[in-house]
Amino acid sequence: MLEGLAPGAAARERERRLLHDEVRAVQATGFGAQRLPVELGGADLPFETVIARLVDLAAADSNLAHVQRGHLAFVEGLRLETAIGAGGPGGEPIPARLRIWADRVRAGEFVGNAQSERQTLGELGTRLARRADGSLRLDGRKFYTTGSIYADWIHLAALEGDERVALTVSTRQRGVVSIDDWDGFGQPLTGSGTTTFEDASVEAVEVERGGDATRSPLIGGVFQLVLLAVVAGVAERALADTVAFVRPRERTFGFAGSRPPRLDPLVQAQVGRLSAVAAGARAIVLDAAQTLGGVLERTRRGEAAGHEARDAQLAVFRAQHTVPTLVLGALAELFEVGGASAVGTGPALDRHWRNVRTIASHNPTVQRLAALGQFELDGTLPEWSAPGAPAAGTTAPPGGTSAQRDGGEDV
User: For residue 130, what are the β-bridge partners?
Assistant: First the structure.
């Protein structure tokens, strides 16, 4: 299937053709259900395997991989809720809600994400309230709602009175509307624009109150590692596109040449650099995925040591500096392989830099470096919170990473 997605990716971006059909095609393969545990009828694939497949999907179409972000994190949350041994002899019964969600995910239903709002960082204007008949209603406006324009369900944060809650709402109702108003210069097909909720109905079983201090950094790590997998995939697609651009060329640039560009050592060096960076980015991402995946599994078993979530968190933070920095540097130089013709809209080589630059802006590297430096100097961990996690008032702590940044501003 990936072979069929890659050739049209540049044209889809250029023409801004949203990925409704492509998202459904990917879901139909079971991509979104790979991490469902066997207790819920799933394939139970290792986390690093799913991330490797996500890199492959991103190499075919970075937008299509990016929109999986909220869905994969949501499924990982379901997995953590399903304790090892649940439903077995002597084990706790699996809650009906988890079985219902497993059926939905296996059927290909898709979950989008909508945390951030265009207002003061850490504040929520989206409200969950009760109608006169006691049913729940949702009202509010979200931005950076990546994937929600394609979704059957949207996972989001809201306030119920003064309490922050997480909830999942069906998009199959008039009160939920996503529009394509994302105006960033990269990742244009992710639907990372506005979603509004107006008297939208919410099932009581879909509301999660309170937070889990253990799960928060782990699910936050999933959100961020998905972005890094997309960056690694872009590097691989950029390499393939650059090779396809250079190989048939006969005309050199700057002066009359006696050999085609593919035989020019300077061109070869640029392509070689991109090859090394693409391989390195994948390796770093998969190494972090192996670390995080191991902690996710041990946490689910109740076996994780206290320091393991910290180590997984830091591994992702370090990769958030290294991977985008390497890839952006190589993508900025790939235009050296072809002179003026390399900036044409036909090859569309510029889209790779724009897309990675957009993804990397989600959590600026300088913030990650500062957080890492603070940890190395005094042992202070960066603060994480997940949708529904308790918060001090409604404002994120100074320098902390709130749900609005680590699970929310998902451009």
Answer: 136
